[in-house]
Amino acid sequence: MNTNGLRSQNWFAGLGRDVFVQRAYLRAEGFGPQVFDGRPIIGICNSWSELTNCNVHLRLVAEAVKRGVWQAGGVPLEFPTISLGEPFIKPTTMLYRNLMAMDVEEMIRANPLDGVVLLGGCDKTTIAQLLGAASADLPAIFVTGGPMLKAHWRGQALGSGTDAFRMWDQVRAGTLSEEEFVEVEGAFARSPGHCMVMGTASTLACLAEALGMTLPGAACIPAPDSRRLALAEASGRQIVATVAAGLRPSQIITQQALENAIRVDMAIGGSTNAVVHLLALAGRLKLSIGLEVFDKLSRTTPCLVNVKPSGNRLMEDLFYAGGIPAVMKELEPLLHLDCLTVNGRTLGENLHAAPAPDGEVIRPRTAPLHPEGGTVVLHGNLAPQGAILKQTAASPHLLTHRGPALVFRDRVDLFERIDDPALPVTPDSVLVLQHAGPVGGPGMPEWGNVPVPKKLLEAGCQDVVRISDGRMSGTAYGTIVLHVAPEAAVGGPLAFVRDGDLMTLNVPERRLTLEVTEAELESRRMGWQPPARHYTRGYGRLFLEHVLQADRGCDFDFLVAGPNPDRDLAMFYAGLGRRTIKQTETNPV
After folding, report:
1. What pTM did the predictor assign?
2. pLDDT for 80-120, tens place per residue?
3. What are phi and psi of 221, to 5 degrees?
């Protein structure tokens, strides 16, 4: 190992007052002087928290990573970051995704690290760590927490989120008792790990692997499976080799790698949230990825993976069927196979021994679950900057639909009226939720999964077209248009929709149209007043003043395509004129 090539040596090598203090304080943790003899310092960035059930097992995963780092001759040092638990944080973890990404980036940048292993699982913990690592651009490898085990109840295999939404509608319709619903609650989440359907957490784990930021096969191993720990240990060994090779995220997450990830997202029927997160990641690295790329790749990528909510199986089944390597093997003709991955090999080399699809959980391209990708991009006068819909989780008969709008001003209005027996709604109605976007929510909460009105459920109607500027859970399903941009709260056309306006959804033609004349829209626009802002101080104010719209990933404007994070640190050391003389330790204690 070239000692002078290690970033951590700027803290620990040579003589001087600062070096003395820094070495002494690390030795206060019980380390001997051997930790300073040119070994790479590997940070373990852990989003463990008891408020994040998906990540609650990551302490054990971190220990496995440490074993691997020691085995390969590195020194592992674990540190915490913000942890975002999707079930608990209100109004939404999306409000804090960028804050966590900043936390990750700054802690990587500010500390004496040569490389970092990222530990995440719940939705925003994965993407926040990828965003932070991409901006810091030190050698990094991701270890996901893995999906929880299947839930079982009365002979049914249940999936988190997806079946909760379905069963709650059954309670509302009177076909499932409250006692049965409570009984399901006790069987629903029976292990650590993230949602075991193809929700946002599972999707992002799969996309981290597709990007080349994990070891092959990492995404789908169930959280309690011993192979998850074996992979974590192997990742600890690999990060030391990655540091030696000088391989950075910017060399792995390229334009071609992001296109591969989008292909995989379409093939797995991935969460709609993946779109906004991948757009943010592209912005961090100044890559030319916009909604038009998602649309192009969606049209030419078949959906192959039969996992809820697009199919009927679960993530555990996908693991047994070969996981993401098997999916990418079937997509091989559509992928950029020369992309580098974190193990130093190309994607094509990694896929050489990948298994063929099993035909049931992973379909062959010749017999796909759906001929196009899971997510489609829509445009029209209602969404000048775009909107999205998950067609594989929608009702086929509603993918082409024309009906009158029924407008809800915000979430409070929605829940005050949605189950009113007098609600003027029919199966032809188009439910419109305003002010659920990045500014209006605030934070673009998962409110887009507007409930089907109780009046319709009782009549046997299970789905209607729903439109909003918010997001929905990746575990959700239905004919739901999301991420309408620009949002209502900043004066997007969604703000001007009124009850009774005719609206047309045409998924085959990728159109979303409000059938109101431009003159009438302009008249409504002239009388529009922006809503009061949710925050006047603190992080909330920062968020509202700097968040970009959904078509740009909802990142902060000042975080997009930043400079080399080590530039200022390098200038600092150059200004000190610090020598990097290796000190020989004779006292082992």
Report:
1. 0.93
2. 999 999 999 999 999 999 999 999 999 999 999 999 999 99
3. -60, 125
- Nearest 5°: CA angle at 279, between 96 and 200? 60
Q: Are 116 and 239 in contact (CB under 8 A)?
A: yes
Q: How far apart are CA 397 and CA 416, in angstroms?
A: 29
**Helix segments in 335-452, DSSP class H:** 347-350, 411-417
Q: Are 38 and 582 in contact (CB under 8 A)?
A: yes
* For the chain, domain boundaries: 1-37+556-589, 40-149+191-350, 375-526
- Identify the helix (H) or strand (E) that includes residue 387: strand 383-390
The answer to whether the peptide bond before residue 309 is cis (omega within 30 degrees of 0) is: yes
- The pair of structure tokens assigned to 12 is 């620990």
Residue 531 has pLDDT above 60, yes or no: yes
Q: What is the pLDDT of residue 576?
A: 42
Per-residue pLDDT tens for 483-500? 999 999 999 999 999 999
Q: Is the pLDDT of residue 205 over 60?
A: yes
- What is the per-residue DSSP string for 55-122? GTTHHHHHHHHHHHHHHTT-EEEEEE-----TTTSSS-THHHHHHHHHHHHHHHHHS--SEEEEEE-S
Long-range CB pairs of 332-336, under 8 A, 24+ apart, other chains included? 334/263, 334/300, 334/301, 335/260, 335/263, 336/256, 336/257, 336/259, 336/260
CA distance 50 to 164: 22
Residue owning tokens 């692997």:
209
- Burial-class residue 533 by CB neighbours within 10 Å (0-12, 13-18, 19+): middle
Residues sharing a CB contact under 8 Å with residue 535, sequence separation 6 or more, in sequence order:
442, 541, 543, 544
Q: Which amino acid would we find at residue 3?
A: T
Cα four-point dihedral sign 171, 176, 177, 178: negative
Which tokens belong to 322? Answer: 């070969």
Instruction: For the domain made up of 375-526, give the CATH fold.
Output: Glucose Oxidase; domain 1 (3.50.30)
CATH superfamily of 40-149+191-350: Response regulator (3.40.50.2300)
Instruction: Name 433's bridge partners.
Output: 408, 468
pLDDT digits 0-9 by tens, 255-288: 999 999 999 999 999 999 999 999 999 999 999 9
H-helix or E-strand spanning residue 431? strand 430-433
